[in-house]
């Protein structure tokens, strides 16, 4: 049994997508952010921080999307979705897997300010402006990198693209896709993958964003 604890549109999509690339179909337990469903004793027994994803697999419960991605690639190497220790691209793979969290943290801070605070008066235009600039700055080196090759690794698609690709799509709620043409093309390339489509259809509709784009408010 493989069970994924998920919020549609969140980092749990990374795990769902990787499982689909491996031809694995998890049972899905869906939650919502900010409705208290992650804030229960039984969920915190799985993920003490009350976050998604959590993945029940191989008789254990794993948390942290990056760790889950690395674990799945190492325990299921036959899918060839990551360079393993000793491979010349291993170090670069690990850098991109973890850099994806640098990008995701900016998005998470913007989600809190722009989506989850219940009252507009609680938002800080200063913080939103700073985080939007930090997000754009963290994407710029990727824009250059992906202007020259189709995927993060020169050898082709890998699980690093799953870690990062999820963030690129979310980032375009806060930075204009037109300013990042290589990343936009990359995001579309990833979205065409059959496994991406499978996971997207199975996860259910995004429950996070209510608008396509969130401008930095005046102030
Ligand atoms: N580094 C963790 C971050 C997990 C995380 O923060 N997930 C978000 C969704 S993308 C969440 O569960 N947020 C719920 C909350 O902040 O209450 C990972 O990669 O799994």
TrEMBL record:
Gene3D superfamilies: 1.20.1050.10, Glutaredoxin
Keyword Transferase: yes
Domain GST N-terminal, chain residue ranges per copy: 1-80
Stretches assigned to the GST C-terminal domain: 86-209
Keywords from the named record: Transferase
InterPro entries named among the record's database cross-references: Glutathione-S-Trfase_C-like, Glutathione-S-Trfase_C_sf, Glutathione_S-Trfase, Glutathione_S-Trfase_N, Thioredoxin-like_sf
GO molecular function, one term: transferase activity
Protein name: Glutathione S-transferase
């Amino acid at each position: 049994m493989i069970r994924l604890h998920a919020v549609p549109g969140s980092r749990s999509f990374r795990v769902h997508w990787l499982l689909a690339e491996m031809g694995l179909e998890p049972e899905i337990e869906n939650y919502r952010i900010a409705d208290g469903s992650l804030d229960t004793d039984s969920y915190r027994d799985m993920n003490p921080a009350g976050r998604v994803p959590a993945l029940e697999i191989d008789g254990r419960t794993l948390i942290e999307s990056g760790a889950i991605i690395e674990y799945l690639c190492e325990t299921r190497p036959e899918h060839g979705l990551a360079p393993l220790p000793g491979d010349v691209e291993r170090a670069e793979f690990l850098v991109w897997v973890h850099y994806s969290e640098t990008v995701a943290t900016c998005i998470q801070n913007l989600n809190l300010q722009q989506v989850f605070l219940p009252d507009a008066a609680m938002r800080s235009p200063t913080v939103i402006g700073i985080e939007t600039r930090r997000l754009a700055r963290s994407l710029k080196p990727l824009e250059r990198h992906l202007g020259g090759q189709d995927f993060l690794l020169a050898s082709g698609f890998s699980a690093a693209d799953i870690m990062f690709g999820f963030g690129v799509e979310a980032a375009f709620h806060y930075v204009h896709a037109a300013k990042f043409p290589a990343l936009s093309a990359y995001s579309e390339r990833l979205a065409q993958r059959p496994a991406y489509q499978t996971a997207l259809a199975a996860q259910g509709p995004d429950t996070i964003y209510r608008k396509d784009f969130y401008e930095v408010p005046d102030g």
